[in-house]
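Long-time lurker, finally posting.

We've been working with HECT domain-containing protein (Coregonus suidteri) and I want a structural starting point before designing mutants. I don't trust myself to interpret raw outputs, so I'm hoping someone here can both generate the structure tokens and explain anything notable. Sequence follows.
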Amino acid sequence: MSKSCPELLREAANLIEEALSRSPTAPAAPVTPAAQSQQIPAAQSRTPVQEWKLIKEPTQAAKVFKENLLREHATGKPLRMKMDVRDSEEDRERELLLLYKQQQEWACPLHCTLVGDVAIGEGVMRYFMTTIISKLQFGFSLDLGGMGRTLLFEGEPDHLVPAASEALIESNLFRVAGRMLGHTLLHDGPHVTGLSPAVIHVLFNGDPEMATVVTEDCPDLHIRSIIELLEHEDLTPEQKDTVSDLSMSWDLPAVTKTNRRWLHNKLLLHAVVGRTMRQIKQLRKGLKDVMVWPLLTSRPDVVPLLFPKMAEMQFTPQMLLEKITWPVEDSDDEDFDLDTTCRITGFLRMFIETASSGTLAQLLTFWVGWEMLPPELRVEISGGTLPTSSTCFETLKLPAHFKLYMDFEKALVAAIKNFRIASAWLVVIATAVGVA
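Top reply, 14 upvotes:
Generated this for you. Predicted structure of HECT domain-containing protein:
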């Protein structure tokens, strides 16, 4: 006997829950009474300082709001994030999802532990936040929707929309995604880039009927091709049937000569917004769970900081140069003469001043572990052979032996390009040691 669609969806959601529960170290922490009784408006009303509303610069306003929120919860029960690099990628993803599926006081102190790695301090937190955003941006290896790799957002750059997967919706994974987005914002992490402006508009309580939707916002190329048929004045009988089949499946009328443009707009709005309303509502709930919602709704100018466009993620030489703390003569590092120090730091300055935005982003990732500028970038002159970095201490270590800029540039470019490969090999080696 065949099963109904709702039954199949419930089974898919149950399978996701079973997949998440397979984690060998799944946290069994019970939900505390305080977390159970958490009322977002009450938590927000505890904030005595509202000066962030009056600060003109959105970046500074966000900074003050987050500092206030973290200060209010500084004595709360710490959140503990733990990951073992020797585990498989799927197991590490499962650990993250299990953590964010729990109800927590997300503004409490955050303690991050990376088992099987020597990284310490802020570098570990950066690793976690980078991993979280990478999974949201590029997908999970876990097959949570029966489609192989799990993408929570799909589509073209700057037109990404929540995936239209019933299994993901039934499993409340977009609320999990909202918590992840809010948590990384709270701890100055990186951000998901390239969301559709229409989705952002609706997410922050904009009228769906007033959302500006463009064809590129429709991630389903088959549906997009049908909607694009309505851009033509004359349709063949077959094309009319194709369009009418789609419109009537969405409770819209069949196409006629007089409603062609109206139907085009309605179909496009439903394809982009109508099919993602439940996902958007879950994202909204997740952001509210982390208690950053007052900031985002009271200060609309902060929203682009949370959801920047890909084209806006541009790094300039000045942005990096003004953050650099250059080596000084009386430092405790290895002794190198002034000429050597000036030559090598001059090579780095030349590299930065002539690099593209993309190359600067890669250099920053090599330097500190992600594409986010820290308060300070440190440079050391070393006796090594190739450029290296200590991401935990935001320090770039440059060998002193280079005499020509061409040799320096070649070595630094190679180090940057090999950074991800080297990181992957470290995980492989750690896994092999753990198995042995």
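Before you design anything, note these points.
The chain has 20 helices and eight strands.
Residues 23-48, 426-431 have pLDDT under 50 and may be disordered.
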